[in-house]
């Protein structure tokens, strides 16, 4: 691409300031208290797409938060790229662990980001990565180098399961028609080890409630004589893994894709230091399913984790009470071929079956999605690989991610097109955690790399 | 006692109003936000003792909340009764489950209290029961029928372990010198089935913290590859009971007092309907240690219950996070001969020993106390039994309680005197729960019965 480096040089400060403004809006979709901020963010995204050169931009209403759609169609005969991203963010708590306020972006240096990183909720997931595409489009339009048609679909409910996006996609197949889908909502191995995500895990997220007595009880008068919902919940959750950390839900593994020794050997080639991994997390030892390596456990194997648990007295001091109810939020990461709705049903059936007499159990599905795999012989993957090579000077490594972007599988099903996951974040960027950040280097590198994807994809499509 | 019924008749409305005023002050000792209210309550108790006829009343400073001390010494040669009670209350949460605000007392009828009950936090535990003694003293002084000396010691830290009371007792043995200690902070079987508590369980209350990774992590990227502190905590807590609901802590049962078949048969005579018990709690089945009845499980057997648990995301919606830390508050009810400090050490040692690699465990003792037994051949018990017979028209049943009043064992050790537990509450009074209440009948019956205890105790002491 002509002048990409000089254009970046000239506008980099403005690009960063624009992103900072976007990050200041607390668009937390999980918490209705932030409703107006989420809507404000959609408005800001719409304006940015117009400024970047889209011919037509609209805010599409849904039953939940709106979807910002934008397009620039230059020639019906050229291929069309659909860019997907999300403008909503994860909740910021626990706030006390942030070294600077989550919605007051600041730039600080880190070991992985010696050139500095933008610290803010959503910096990496996904406002920062989504905005790279907006700025890449700006470059291509302003310098008349846009080689194909482009459509943007930026949603506001990714962190809560994209329920309404699914409906939107199903009912707008013509509008969203495309040849390839491009998403930057994943990571790469390191700033000098580029990688492209070729697989995603599915997800089933449920909330469970265990109810014992109809009211909180005095633990002295009733302790030991009635089922304590918290003790029962811990027993039920503990029983979901056996001594080898296999998940005990009947049928859970039935459809799990088993990789060949060759595939596993190929995976094992990705640079990885267990020592650094443990050091970075300050843990003495890793933990997980017997018979699999750390990188296998968090990518090609399904998992079950409690994401939150609460019940009884959790305030200051001591209260000798037996709670009437105990709750937990539990998520399962699924691998290709596991159907999330089937797994959710298996979980509910099993969890209800293991409840002892004396308690009532309620399982409420939150959301979920299927796993996904991109074949590396797809021209979209090849175009992406060439783009990274052009800007990083080395071929990217194809990599399975442990994360989930539930709608990717849906895109394939409804829009009949593959998705290319060009992620520029790092594992150490603390997404979903306090002090989330996104490298300034990564932000600029993304803006620089994306136009090359357009270029090579257009060429390979001829 | 002459005129007790007529005196009650004449002043019952005022007695109730005075109690209501006391209940309006939210004296929650566990939450420092209520500090001024706790101190205000001490002041109110002081004034009430002066009005009731104490010659000397003082607010004794401690390192925590003060102890209100009052006395009326009529004759050094007469026996001295020490009345103990507490003016602090349990936290009121969960507030949303109260049918009326916890600190705006109202009188409502219930199945167990057809004459109405006072609904407020502390109504039964222990402001209402403590205040019966103040009003009983008022009657005896105003009608010149006080048959012996009396001392009051009303503390403000019972709900948080009476740490400073212990120091106070140890350093004021002469001031607190007495022949018998009288406490109303327990219950009776029913309004037409009077009973006296002859045993209390000990208590060990600890807080545990499990720390995994040094920060919250994305459950997709790390799930299944690192120890999830919440999953680990559930496994650790679950393992504290075996399949028979025996506690698995090594040495936990070593010193447990084992009752004879005769004693257990005697206990079994107390009227009890398992059907009504389950109905009252809306549970399908009871639950507990194999080989013991419900009444044995909550009185003569030690127990372990989680009183609170928390970790991860507990807000609205879903967050796919692996928490860095998980916490629980755990209390153990102990029986005579189990030493709470020894049990606390055994718990900590065991809990730390079962932590898997990859997590750090911290156990913090909150507070505790020893169990206690009153022999029924003690003249204090006999005087109490005669007092109930005089006012209820039937002999009370001696009963072991599952609750704990840690300082009772300390009183015996430091002051060398026995404690008589004349409790007038009912199990259904929901102490420590939303909608705590105390029967108006019980309040008046207590005021009527207590003077008889003084009378018979003085006579039996001759």
From TrEMBL, chains A, B:
InterPro entries: Bact_exopeptidase_dim_dom (IPR036264), Cyt/Met_Dipeptidase (IPR051458), Peptidase_M20 (IPR002933), Peptidase_M20_dimer (IPR011650). It comes from the Bacteria. Pfam families: M20_dimer (PF07687), Peptidase_M20 (PF01546). Keywords: Dipeptidase, Hydrolase, Metal-binding, Protease. Its EC number is 3.4.13.-. Transmembrane segments: none annotated. Residues 199-358 form the Peptidase M20 dimerisation domain. CDD domains: M20_dipept_like (cd05680). GO terms for molecular function: dipeptidase activity. This is Dipeptidase.
């Amino acid at each position: 691409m002509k002048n990409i480096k000089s254009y970046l040089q000239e506008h980099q400060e403005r690009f960063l300031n624009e992103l900072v403004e976007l990050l200041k809006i607390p668009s937390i979709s999980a918490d209705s208290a932030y409703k107006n901020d989420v809507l404000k963010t959609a408005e800001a995204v719409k304006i940015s797409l117009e400024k970047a050169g889209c011919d037509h931009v609209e805010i599409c209403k849904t039953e939940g938060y709106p979807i910002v759609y934008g397009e620039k169609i230059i020639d019906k005969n050229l291929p069309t790229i659909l860019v997907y991203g999300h403008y909503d963010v994860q909740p910021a708590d626990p706030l006390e662990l942030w070294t600077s306020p989550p919605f007051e972006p600041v730039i600080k240096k880190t070991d992985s980001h010696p050139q500095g990183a933008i610290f803010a909720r959503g910096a990496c997931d996904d406002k920062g990565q989504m905005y790279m595409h907006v700025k890449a489009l700006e470059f291509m339009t302003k310098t008349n180098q846009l080689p194909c048609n482009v459509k943007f679909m930026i949603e506001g409910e990714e962190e809560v399961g994209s329920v309404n996006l699914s409906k939107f996609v199903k009912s707008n197949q013509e509008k969203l028609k495309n040849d390839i889908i491009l998403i930057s909502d994943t990571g790469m191995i390191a700033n000098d080890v580029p990688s492209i995500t070729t697989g995603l895990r599915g997800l089933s997220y449920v909330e469970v409630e265990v109810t014992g007595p109809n009211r909180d009880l005095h633990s002295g008068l009733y302790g030991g004589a009635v089922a304590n919902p918290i003790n029962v919940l811990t027993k039920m959750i503990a029983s979901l893994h056996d001594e080898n950390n296999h998940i005990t839900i009947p049928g859970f593994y039935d459809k799990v894709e088993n990789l060949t020794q060759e595939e596993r050997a190929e995976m094992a080639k990705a640079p990885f230091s267990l020592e650094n991994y443990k050091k970075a997390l300050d843990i003495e030892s890793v933990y997980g399913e017997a018979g699999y390596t750390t990188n296998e456990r968090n990518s090609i194997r399904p998992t079950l984790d409690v994401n939150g648990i609460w019940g009884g007295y959790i305030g200051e001091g001591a209260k000798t009470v037996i709670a009437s109810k105990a709750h937990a939020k539990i998520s399962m990461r699924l691998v290709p071929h596991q159907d999330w709705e089937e797994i959710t049903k298996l979980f509910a059936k099993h969890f209800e079956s293991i409840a002892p007499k004396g308690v009532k159990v309620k399982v409420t599905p939150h959301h979920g999605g299927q796993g996904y795999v991109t074949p590396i012989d797809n021209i979209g993957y090849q175009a992406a690989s060439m783009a990274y090579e052009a800007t990083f000077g080395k071929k990217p490594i194809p990599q399975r991610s442990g994360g989930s972007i539930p709608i990717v599988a849906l895109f394939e099903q409804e829009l009949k097109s593959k998705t290319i996951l060009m992620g520029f974040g790092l594992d150490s960027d603390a997404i979903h955690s306090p002090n989330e950040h996104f490298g300034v280097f990564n932000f600029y590198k993304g803006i620089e790399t994306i136009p090359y994807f357009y270029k090579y994809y257009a060429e390979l499509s001829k």
